Amino acid sequence: MRKPPAALALILFAAVFAGALASARPAAAADGSKIFNLQCRTCHAAKSSVAGPSLNGVAGRRIAGLSDFAYSQALKAKAGAWTDAALDAYLAAPGKFAPGGRMITAVASPADRAALVAYLKTLK
């Protein structure tokens, strides 16, 4: 049996690796859904409420960007958008990300934060 050329082997490896990553994303989002339901759903629903803003479409949205929620001055003072890095930093330590903000729940585990961010990106 002939050995495949190195380029073909690399292409096959990349295809298998990409498939593994693609199949890992739904699992991460599913885990994030569990975390969301345990830690976030109390304050964050499909529509904004007094307790918290809707997180539908939060990924990529301007920080403190919904008009139907009264954000803290701390979040209003933040510039930028809810990128993966910003969401991770906020979930890790809300009081450090936006000192004086009202969110008190943090997600200590980096793996749990990654899963939660993956889930938040599915909310439309």
Cα shape: globular
- The percent range for helix content is 40-55%
Radius of gyration: 19 Å
Q: What class do helices, strands and sheet pairing give?
A: mainly alpha
How confident overall, as mean pLDDT? 85
Give the number of helices.
5
Name the helix and strand elements from N-terminus to C-terminus, one letter apiece: HHHHH
Low-confidence stretches: 6-24
The rounded distance between the terminal residues' Cα atoms is 51 Å
List keywords for this structure.
124 residues; mainly alpha; 5 helices
Structural notes for this entry:
Helices cover 50% and strands 0% of the residues. With 124 residues, the chain is mainly α. The protein is globular, with a radius of gyration of 19 Å. It starts with 5 loop residues before the first helix and ends with a helix. Residues 6-24 have low confidence and may be disordered.
Question: Could you write a compact summary of the structure shown?
Answer:
This protein has about 120 residues and is mainly alpha-helical. It is built from 5 helices and no strands.
